Amino acid sequence: MVVNLRPESWNVSAAGGLPLLEVRHVTFGYELQPVFFDVCLQLAAGEMVGLLGPNGSGKTTLLRLLSGVLRPTQGEIRLQGRELDRWRRRELARVVAVVPQELHIPFDFTVEQLVALGRLPFVGLLGSYGPQDRARIEAAMQVTGVAALAKRPFNELSGGERQRVLVAMALAQQPRLLLLDEPTAHLDIRYQIEVLELVQRLNREHGLTVLAAMHDLNLAARYFPRLVLFQRGIVADGTPATVLEPRLLSRVYGIAVQVGIVRGTAHFSVVPPGSREAQEAEEEMAALEPPPRVFVMAGGGSGERVMRALADWHIPFLAGVLNMGDSDHTLALRLASRVLTEQPYAPLSQAALEELRTALTTVETLIICPMYVGPGNVALLGEALTAARQGCRVLLVAPETAATEPSDMAFIPDSESQELSLLLARTGIAARDYTGGEATRLVEQLLQAGARVISRLTEVLALSAA
Ligand SMILES: Nc1ncnc2c1ncn2[C@@H]1O[C@H](COP(=O)(O)OP(=O)(O)OP(=O)(O)O)[C@@H](O)[C@H]1O
Q1: Which of 263, 294, 431, 443 has the fewest C-beta atoms lying within 10 Å of its C-beta?
Q2: Nearest-10 crossing angle of helices 159-172, 131-144
Q3: Where is the ABC transporter domain (predicted)?
């Protein structure tokens, strides 16, 4: 029998040149817990993409959104150009299949019965399996190497065998897009490789589009030509060589990572903190660029222009304290030398503030972007004030930094208090102060301590580079 698992309606032109899957500005949160904000991603038909990220970074959540189990709070997901919401469940199941990390089966299903369940979108609950359906089920078991286990109860199989049965079940759906959630979790190295070889073969020979959440960086580099690094948002997206950049990984995973080449192939080794190798790795990294003399405080996207400009000008900087999931955090992970991080949507902890205090003693310039200030982050301004009083140059970036000075500069104040009021107005803090006035008072004190209000991005850069 010829094993044909090519999707039934497979036709690249059917999508009219559109990406197979498109995530457009998707924001999502569970009831009380926002997870990510404004995620954009495209998958072309036939791609094989690895989704990387630390525990809790939102990989499973993203996969559940893509499979239609969850719905975005904002934004939209399009499959073959059509919004996911407009797909009927059965119809969707013929195009997208999901392989979960594990599946708890309460009944004694045999392997064959379970794989047949994958065929349900084609036959319906009361429908009967025709010869073509049976052939598909058989083909799915053949290609995953579980045909010999057909009559065995699923619950009695080893982890590796079970994982392959779950892939077979997904393949019986004849999907175009296969979403795998850590397909190699719980597997020993032999089964890890077997499962990934299988997925790679399905991708290469059957044109299956694959998106798989992966924890093992080495395996990800080996099997996936494109990697997406996720940390409550997309931090990096590209080839393994660009995404698996040691300093980027170290920032995202919070641990020293070394990348080496063995016999012409890139390999990755994660080094535990405190070890001699980790220390050497950190020293090597530190030697690669001068220590940053600039610190950026931002949040909610207010730091984007400044951080991008600093990076373009090759001015190394530290950033923080930023909550995971904040778009400025995602960007800082990509661009900053080091990012001081707080848990998602949590107020700043004492530990984070102490880290900030220490970091501020190492820099010469502190740039405060026009961020919203609430009870959760107002302590940043308190630390900025301490730094200013200790001689750190503080730049308060005015909102909507313009190419020219605002016209109100033509007004010449006739007293110190008038000048202070004018400067305070230029910071625009009153409109962003959600602390009942505390933030405004702190900004006023910063101005009294010598902080400058900067309206032009070029001036921020010139002062940072000085
Ligand atoms: N059903 C849920 N209700 C509320 N919060 C949830 C739910 N599922 C996940 N979360 C939270 O959402 C965040 C992202 O979780 P998610 O499982 O998507 O991450 P992940 O990257 O897949 O993690 P891991 O690598 O550990 O599997 C976590 O903080 C998690 O606690």
Answers
A1: 263
A2: 140
A3: 21-257
User: Per the domain annotation, does 7 fall within a domain?
Assistant: no
Q: What is the pLDDT of residues 44-71, one digit of tens each?
A: 999 999 999 999 899 999 999 999 999 9
User: Can you give the pTM of this predicted structure?
Assistant: 0.79
Instruction: Give the integer Cα–Cα distance in Å for 443 and 396.
Output: 9
Indicate the helix (H) or strand (E) that contains 148.
Answer: none
Shortest-distance atom of ligand 1 to CA 58: 18
Q: Of 156-160, 331-335, 415-419, which range is least confident?
A: 415-419
Closest ligand 1 atom to residue 215 Cα is 25
For 358-385, write each residue's pLDDT tens digit: 999 999 999 999 999 999 999 999 999 9
The atom of ligand 1 lying closest to the CA of 57 is 21
Total domain count, the chain: 3
Nearest CA to ligand 1 atom 2: 30
Q: Is the CB of 55 under 6 A from ligand 1?
A: yes
Instruction: Evaluate whether residue 5 is within a structural domain.
Output: no
Does 231 sit in the ligand 1 pocket, CB within 6 Å?
no
